[in-house]
Amino acid sequence: MAPSPPHITARRGKFITLEGAEGVGKTTNREFIRRCIEMSGHTVIVTREPGGTPLAEQIRGLLLERREDGMSSDTELLLMFAARAEHLARVILPALEAGAWVLCDRFTDATYAYQGGGRGISSERIATLEEWVQGALRPDLTLLLDLPVAEGLQRAGQRSAPDRFESEQAAFFERVRLAYLALAQQHPARYRVIDAAQPLEDVQKNIQTVLTDFFATL
Ligand code: T5A
Q: What separation in Å is there between the alpha carbon of 146 and the centre of ligand 1?
């Protein structure tokens, strides 16, 4: 018997996700977005994927560490959704049901981009797990920070030693970027694409405009 998807009873908060390939500036802009949301009068929880709970952070460790014996694409996909199931049950759904907003640095669109676009797993297979783990839950707003791959890798490379994903070839990240841009076209109502090649001040002006427009719809 198929397990039931999460039961979303009284979802009152908004769910905002931040997406993009490596080094596009998600971490840099998280605090700025948190402040914008708080200034609009809402409580917000900032979290990330893979991760966001002690167990999901342990799964993140497994996913990011470089390993001699590699990892099959299906294992990678299932670990992403295992971490997500934990994160949803313990952090995201309780917060939304309590009326808080949730700002999540990466969510299932990252799975479509990396495991789908990057690794070549079919969208249908990912959608099956999405339905299983999330039920009807989808983000209300997704900010996609878009940047040419070479620039993103250069920015990310300045920061720390490459993890398992960052060790992929540029062609992998080109597929990831194209998959994200395709998702933005498929979901124009919830996606906003931000040109992340601009100076940080201009990126944040664009983000603020997107958020102001979103607040106006509430
Ligand atoms: N993953 C994740 C999957 O494969 N499937 C999934 O389902 C999920 C959820 C970890 C990995 O997991 C994979 C994707 C990832 O490879 P992560 O830690 O969120 O996920 O991923 P990263 O992309 O590695 O996160 P990074 O921390 O590397 O990138 P950020 O956060 O986008 O970039 P940030 O903010 O650290 O900025 C990088 C550098 O650029 C500078 C910053 O100061 C920093 O030095 N910078 C700018 N410089 C100039 N101009 C600007 N506008 C700048 N903005 C930032």
A: 11
Distance CA 127, CA 140 (A): 18
Query: Is residue 99 a contact partner of residue 13, using CB atoms and an 8 Å limit?
Result: yes
Among all chains, which residue has been given the structure tokens 């841009």? 181
> What is the rounded CA–CA span in Å between residue 41 and residue 128?
36
User: CA 69, CA 181: separation in Å to the nearest integer?
Assistant: 32
Tell me the per-residue pLDDT of 95-108, one tens digit each, with 9 for 90 and over.
Answer: 999 999 999 999 99
pLDDT higher than 60, residue 10: no
Task: Identify the residue whose C-alpha is closest to ligand 1 atom 24.
Answer: 22
> Residue 1: is it exposed, middle or buried by C-beta count within 10 angstroms (0-12/13-18/19+)?
exposed
Ordered domains of the chain (ranges, CATH): 15-216 (3.40.50.300)
Which amino acid does the sequence have at 218? Answer: L
Q: How far is the CA of 22 from the centre of ligand 1 (A)?
A: 5
21-55 pLDDT, tens digit per residue, is 999 999 999 999 999 999 999 999 999 999 999 99
Higher pLDDT, 6 or 170: 170
Q: Which residue from 76, 78, 97, 75 is spatially nearest to 88, judged by alpha carbons?
A: 97
| pTM of this structure | 0.95
Q: Using a 6 Å cutoff on CB, does residue 194 contact ligand 1? A: no
- Asked whether the CA dihedral 16, 97, 189, 218 is positive or negative, the reply is negative
Q: Residue 5's closest CA among 139, 140, 187, 128?
A: 128
pLDDT at 6 over 60: no
